[in-house]
Amino acid sequence: MKKLSFAFVLCMLFNISFANGLLTNTNQSTQFVRMMSRNASLGIDGVYYNPAGLIKLDDGWHFSVNNQSIFQTKTIDTEFPWLNDGHYEGKTTVPFFPTGFAVYKNNKWAFSFGFGPNAGGGSVTYDRGIPSFEIPLSKYAAGLSTLTPLLLQSGLPTVSGYNANLSFEGSSVVWGFQLGATYKINEIFSAYFGLRYTPGNNTYYGQINDISVKNGNGSMLASDYMELISPVLNQTVVLLGVASNSLEAAINTGLLDPNSTITNPQIIEIMTFLGNPEATNQEAVNAMTSTKGSLESLQSTDVSNKTVDVEQTGSFFTGIVGVNIAPNEFFNIGLRYENKNFLTVENKTTQDDLALFPDGAISRNDIPGIIGVGVGYTDKNWFEAQLSFNMYLDKYVSWGANVRDLSVWQGIDNSKIRICEIEHNSFDIALGMQFNVSEAFSLSTGCMYQKAGVADNFNSDFRFASPSYVAVGGGFMWKATDQLTLDFGVSGLSYQDANVVYDDPHLGGSYNETYGTKAFSIAIGLSYSIPY
C-alpha cells in the first residue's frame, strides 16, 4: 500500500446519462418525456427520432425549443467491513437540459438541424466521496491496529479507527449538433442522411484531506502519528530483517530443517509476539518477512492531502441514416441507424497529486451505435400510438477494466482484474399513447422498459448501470394557435439495483456492493411553425 489513492481511472463518462443505453441520452424532446416513445414521430422532434419522417411536415419553417429539469440520486452500499459507514449517496440536479430543432420543408426536401446533450449533461456530487476513495483509508487504519501489542509495549497510543474529509464531483456532457437532409422518394418511402458533431467535455474534481487516526487520546493527523511511532517501527523492521535473514541462511546451508519447530529462543520470542510460537523454521521466516513488509508499507504510506482537478475535451462526427415507410394514412414506420461515435478526449490537468492524469494524455470515450425502429398509428381523429424499439451496440465498444479491481489488484495479481464485460447489447422497448381531447388539447402517457446487457463485473462505484429499469411518463399538448404549440411532460424512472462481488487480498475473502439509482424529470417545450 504505497499510497492512499482515489483509484482514478476515469477515462469514460461518469455515467451521468438520463435516458436509454449505457451512455446515450434519448430524452431529446418534451414529446418524448410525455410519451416515452417517439421513433415513428412525424413531428418536429423527428429531427432526432425519425428524421426520414420530416417529409410529412407542412411546407415551411418549423422550430422547437425544449428544456428538462432532471433530478437523480445514486446510492452505493458496500459491505466492506473496515469502513466507518458503507452508505454513499450522490446527487445530480440539472435545472437546464436544453434541446432544439429546426426544419425547412419544401416539396420533396426537408433540411433539418438539431442540438442537445447526446450523452451526459450534468454533474454528480458525492459529499463523502465513494468507496474506492475510502477503502484504502480503512485498510491503512486496520494495518495500524495490528500494531497494538507492539505500541502498548512501547507506551505509544494505539489506533482504533480513522477520519478524513472526502469529496468527489464529476461532470460530463457530449453535445450533439446534427445537420441532415430528407428526400421524398415516393408517397410511401422517404430517406435521410445526416451528420452529428459531438464535442465532449468531462471534468473531475476530488479531494482527500485531513487524514487522521483515532486513538485513546482522541485523534491526531495521520502524518503526526506516523512521525510519533516511526522510531519503534524502524527498530522493529531492522530486528525482523536480521532475524529472518539469519534463520533463512541457516535453512539454506542445511544447519536447520525448514519443517522442524523453531528452537532459537530469540526467534521463539519474536514468534510468540507474532502469535505463533510453535511455528516451523520456514513458517517463522515467512511470518517475519511478511510482517516486515507490512510495516515498511505502512511507513511508506502517503497520508498527505490529495487533490485531482482535470478536464477532458474532444470531438467527433457521427453518421446517421434513416428511412420512413408510410404504407397508408393510418400507419407509419420509422427506421434509424446511428454510427458508433469514436470520441477521443485529451487531458487538461490543473492538479494531479496522484500522477494518474498526465496533462495532454489521450483516452477513448466512445459512444455506442444505435438501431432504432418505430411503428406509429393514428385514426386521424382522437387517438395516436407509437411503439418504439432501440438497440444500443454496446458490444462494439471497449469499456476497459473494472476500476475497483484495477485499483486493488494492479501489481498484486493482475489476473484478478476483470474486464467490463457486455453479455449482450442493451435494448429498450416503449409504448406511447396520445388522446386528442379536442383539436387544441391532447393528453398523453407512455412507458418504457430497458434491459442492459452488462455483466456484473461491468459495474463499479466509478461507473455503474442498472440491469433494467421501467420509465413512466405523462403530460399534455396545447395548440395555443395554429402556429404555436406548448408541450409539457413529467417522467419517473424505477431502476433495478446492481450488485457486484469483489475480492480483496487484505480481507482474504469477498464482499458485496450494491448500486441504486432514482430519477425524475420535468420538461416543457414550445414549437412554432411558419407555413407557406
Written description of the protein model:
With 532 residues, the chain is of the alpha+beta class. It has one domain: Outer membrane protein transport protein (OMPP1/FadL/TodX) (Porin, Beta Barrel), CATH 2.40.160. 18% of the residues lie in helices and 46% in strands. The radius of gyration is 30 Å and the shape is elongated. The N and C termini lie far apart (72 Å).
Task: Give a topology summary.
Layout: H1 30-35, H2 46-49, E1 60-78, E2 87-106, E3 109-126, H3 131-145, H4 148-153, E4 161-184, E5 189-215, E6 218-221, H5 222-252, H6 265-273, H7 281-300, E7 306-325, E8 331-338, E9 344-352, E10 362-364, E11 370-378, E12 383-392, H8 403-409, E13 426-436, E14 441-451, E15 468-479, E16 484-495, E17 498-504, E18 509-531
Antiparallel strand pairs: 1-2, 1-18, 2-3, 3-4, 4-5, 5-6, 5-7, 7-8, 7-9, 8-11, 9-10, 11-12, 12-13, 13-14, 14-15, 15-16, 16-18, 17-18
Helix pairs in contact: 5-7
Q: Tell me the name of the CATH homologous superfamily.
A: Outer membrane protein transport protein (OMPP1/FadL/TodX)
CATH class: Mainly Beta
Proportion of helical residues: 10-25%
Query: What are the segments in which pLDDT stays under 50 over at least 5 consecutive residues?
Result: 1-17
Number of domains: 1
Largest β sheet strand count, sense and barrel closure: 14 strands, antiparallel, barrel
User: What order do the helices and strands follow?
Assistant: HHEEEHHEEEHHHEEEEEEHEEEEEE
The span between the termini is 72 Å
Computed CA radius of gyration, to the nearest angstrom? 30 Å
Provide the structure class.
Answer: alpha+beta
CATH topology: Porin
Number of strands: 18
Write down the overall mean pLDDT.
90
Count of individual helical segments: 8
β-strand percent reads over 45%
Assigned CATH architecture? Beta Barrel
Categorize the overall geometry: elongated
